[in-house]
Amino acid sequence: MEYETVIGLEVHAQLLTDSKIFCGCSTKFGAAPNSHTCPICLGMPGVLPVLNRKVVEYTIKMGLATNCRINPEDVFARKNYFYPDLPKGYQISQFDRPLAEDGWVDIEIDGKKKRIGIIRIHMEEDAGKLVHDETSPFSYVDFNRTGVPLIEIVSRPDIRSPEEATSYLRRLHEILVYLEICDGNMEEGSFRCDANVSIRPGGAAEFGTRTELKNMNSFRNVQRALEYEVKRQQYVVEGGGKVAQETRLWDDAQGTTLSMRGKEEAHDYRYFPDPDLVPVAIDNAWIEEVRATLPELPMEKRERFIGEYGIPAYDAGVLTATRALAEFYEETVKLTGKPKIASNWVMGDVLRYLNEEKRDIRESPVKPSSLADMINLIERGTISGKMAKEVFEEMYRSGKGPEAIIEEKGLVQITDEDALKKTIEQVLAANPSEAEQYRSGKQKLFGFFVGQVMKATGGKANPAMVNDILKKILSGR
Amino acid sequence: MAAGLHESTIHELQEKLRRGDVTASEITEAVFSRIEAVDGRIKSFITIMRDSAAACARRADEAIRAGKAGPLTGIPIAVKDIMCTKGVRTTCGSRILENFFPPYDATVVRKLKEGGAVIVGKTNMDEFAMGSSTETSFYGITRNPWDLGRIPGGSSGGSAAAVAAGECIASLGSDTGGSIRQPASLCGVVGMKPTYGRVSRYGLIAFASSLDQIGPFTRDAEDCAILLNAICGYDPLDSTSVPVETPDYRSFVGKDIKGWKFGVPREYLIEGIDPEVAGLMEESIGVLESLGAERVDISLPHTEYCVAVYYVIAPAEASSNLARYDGVKYGYRSPDARDLIEMYRKSRSEGFGAEVKRRIMIGTYALSSGYYDAYYKKASQVRTLIKRDFEEAFRKCDVIVTPTAPTAAFRIGEKTDDPLQMYLSDIFTISANLAGIPGISTPCGYTGKGLPVGLQLLAGHFQEGKLIQAASALERNAKFEKRRPAL
Predict the structure, then answer these.
(1) A90 shares contact with chain B (CB less than 8 Å)
(2) Which of A324, B145, B178, B466 sits 20 to 30 Å CA-CA off B247?
(3) Is B111 a catalytic residue?
């Protein structure tokens, strides 16, 4: 039987605020355990939360960037459950009055656009981390992460395949990073995802029973886990069984999902409005103020690059992967007026050298102005494209500008017609039989002569001029 | 008989300190002598802070000599053991916090210290403020100074008894459903619950966050104004504290109340009121009328739902507020748990008393999936109606008058087996917490057995000044002779 896969995703993104959502502690990752804590985030008796306004601002940003409605009055609610990494015994989250609702993002699969609905985006606090020591009968808790602001983005069950799921995730990830409200680091847990998955016979109107998948900490694992889970559910159904409503954990090493808890053990979170926090009022003025700070989003930028610069969709996709990269590219174009050549250099040598060292575009030793100077030198014929490769490498290593390197290395292209003519004549004189063969019709020897000329000039001859002069001489003028 | 230092009011002592008739150290010494003499019988305190108080009194004397005295400089004040005190054990009357030493001061404690007050100790209370008799404390019961066989009221029974018995000059309590006003009434002192949001809750260990409010216990209305001045005001650490202007409450003392309308809610004239209590209230209303005020009949139609609404909302919030006591981070941890679930179960089973467990269970139930709408949500809706009742009522009157409690102090153990009877002792006080309005209990006389009785006055939001004004008018024109408990 043909099955249709139905997936909904819940994404948790840590917001890039300096301080936590309800206290002044630092949000920096990687500090010594429990060094970023205070009575408030430790949930000591009598302390009270005070909302960090930046969190609201960042969440409004994400809401606007994903076409959501921003609710004018937002209420924090307590989600009650016991766990040692949750010091208050409840998580401050939002329940029936989230900040943003009813949005969407577009994804593209094989060149086809598809719209994925977003049910809601809400604010909440992160929990701490348990530290297990195999050699000790105790486990420890690190509360540094407790109270780090999170937003949860809940999609509609509009996703129909693991590919669509990862495409949607990449889209959200890219928007969050573009907005500079999340660093998107999946390894450190700044961007996490849970999935609700079900299958149903093709054409059925009702949803099948869903399982919730957790513990997938990379795009690749999301895809693998979903693929596995879809197959597992098909296997269960085809074997005459029923999919159980449960929470399952992805096991990366085994490549399987394992049951964590069933429906009966599901928590009753006993949500209720948090009486320690007043509702957050968001008026239109605030929304418009935030809207004015929104950058051009990746999708729009991509389309603009294709239209404005006439570069292929593939190039536009690569160049808009981050805001910084797109800015680097646009700066280069502005200084050269050569969009495609600039694209080739940025996607080619610039990213290759940076990727080799796992460096970010913002750390590039070659700045757009230097790259543009180099491209302009090629365009003017001062250096050849081949020489430019060498020049670029040196620019990358030393951080120097192209002119200085060309001068140091004596790399200036030979464009003196008489000098070139002389060299060509010498080459022809040294290879009389090849010259004879060429003249009697073996045209493909042309390349041989070009090569000999380049060799004789140490690669400095202007290739276009060599072509011209060689043709003239060989054809006897 | 001349009042000893420990029996004086704040304003009397201020005057004496100012004139140099007495030193803060002498006052503090007098108070500690009194504590030594009587606290073995009353047990107002869980923790007595003799050494730090003496040091504080010496600093107060220096400040006075330097001409830097504030209104509370050198005044011995007791604090209910529900407010966090930096480095001083804060138990909330519970075994689960028997080893808890907060690394921070509650905002009110900070304000007292900054004002130069001498904190004498942490007073006994019903465990987590859940009770009306100070009988549920893990640290033993507190007795009523007027009759040691009776309860002092609760939950702030220790704070009320300490003021009544001369073990401090004034004290702070907290009031979630009457926990300041009811013990004030039963111990014959003045007790005020300010408007919700008037006093910061930062560092007040939460029972029911939307109802809890800190307030003063004092010997008269003027002292109440002085202490309220010291603790009130917006606090950036408490999002529910309100940034509105705070008047000088002392300026309301002694002002006349001519032309004021005092509303008597007909729904409060119930059968359960002790006739003596009703009689004393009538007498007070007579005094008000003699001062040119008018008695008006008012209605608070949703009164009958107050207790029910309260016993859904307060336990619901408490069930969540008390989840943090899990044995993981601080407080009591059962010594013989073998795994996480057992650690939770045993620590909480052994750490909490019966009344607290009862309320956690009620609250958990009321918030549970499938019951939320019928209980918590419904209760919240009715709460809105109760608020509206008061808004309506205050269109017709300046201040509402009721008995503070239906009876004078009851006997120890009399109601401990009957939670419902116990809950009804707060029947007149709960509505002010639900509506968020301020209320004061001021002494209005004595029963035939010589037990004090309080009168409750309620005003609109942020109208504490009216309460001070009315209470001070009543006090200055009282028809009864003021007594002290014979100890």
Answers:
(1) yes
(2) B178
(3) no
Out of A43, A84, A90, the one facing B340 most closely (by C-beta) is A84
Tens digit of pLDDT for each residue in B440-483? Answer: 999 999 999 999 999 999 999 999 999 999 999 999 999 999 99
Q: What pLDDT band is residue B188 in, cutting at 50, 70 and 90?
A: very high
Section A66-85 average pLDDT = 97
pTM given for the model: 0.91
Query: Distance between CA A262 and CA A244 in Å, rounded?
Result: 8
Active site residue B320: no
> What DSSP assignment string belongs to B85-138?
BTTB---TT-GGGTT---SS--HHHHHHHHTT-EEEEEE--SGGG--SSS-S-T
Residue A382 tokens, joined: 């001062």
For chain B, how many structural domains are there in total? 1
Residue of A nearest to B106 (CA): A46
Containing structural domain, residue B242:
5-252
Contacts of B326 in chain A (CB under 8 A): 82, 84, 89
Contact B202 A47 (CB under 8 A): yes
Q: Using the predicted structure, report yes or no on whether residue B24 has a pLDDT greater than 50.
A: yes
Q: A138 touching B, CB under 8 A?
A: no
CATH code of the domain made up of A417-474: 1.10.10.410
Residue B438 lies in a domain: no
Is residue B72 domain-resident? yes
Known catalytic membership, residue B80: yes
Q: Which of A39, A88, A272 is opposite residue B104, by nearest beta carbon?
A: A39
Q: Which of B443, B437, B425 is nearest to B134 (CA)?
A: B425
* CA–CA distance, A249 with B122 (Å, rounded to integer): 50
Q: How many contacts (CB atoms, under 8 Å) link A and B?
A: 102
Q: ipTM of the assembly?
A: 0.96
